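hey m, so remember when u said the tokens were messed up on ur end? i reran from scratch. heres the input so u can diff it against urs
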Amino acid sequence: MAEGEEELPRDAKIVKSLLKSMGVDDYEPRVINQFLELWYRYVVDVLTDAQVYSEHASKPAIDCDDIKLAIQSKVNFSFSQPPAREVLLELARNRNKIPLPKSITGLGIPLPPERDTLICPNYQLAIPKKKRTAQAMEETEEDEEGGDPSQPSQEGRTDLPQHAPQRVSFPIGAKRLR
């Protein structure tokens, strides 16, 4: 035996021999402790359930039937069995009867629409309008009264105050021009 193996508890030696019998030679030492913890927790759960079954049956002590029932209930509720092969084959046949849709895109990988990608705009900015001061209002009135023909008319101006805030959205990712 190796040096560290003599001081191991009996249960740890059992776990180590199980690992060795399964062909696992390289593992960290804490793996044994993790298996022992799992093993102890499982045994405690099974014995607790067996005790409940024994008390329900008004038995003075736990017997083999109580333990078998506890293990069977653990297996039924902890592990699920896959469906039978015949059932899976029938489901596959039914699914495969429906043909795949024809691809309408050209060459290359078909991509989802831009609205379904991460590069589409996902927020909006509300840009508040600046409040105009009395001095700015007077200057605007003077410009309108002056009627300088070299100045463009006020009809084309877009900086006039509006009642609703302007919303601006733009994509996060950069788009390439083609």
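this time it looks ok to me. The chain has five helices and two strands. if urs says something different then somethings off w ur setup not the seq
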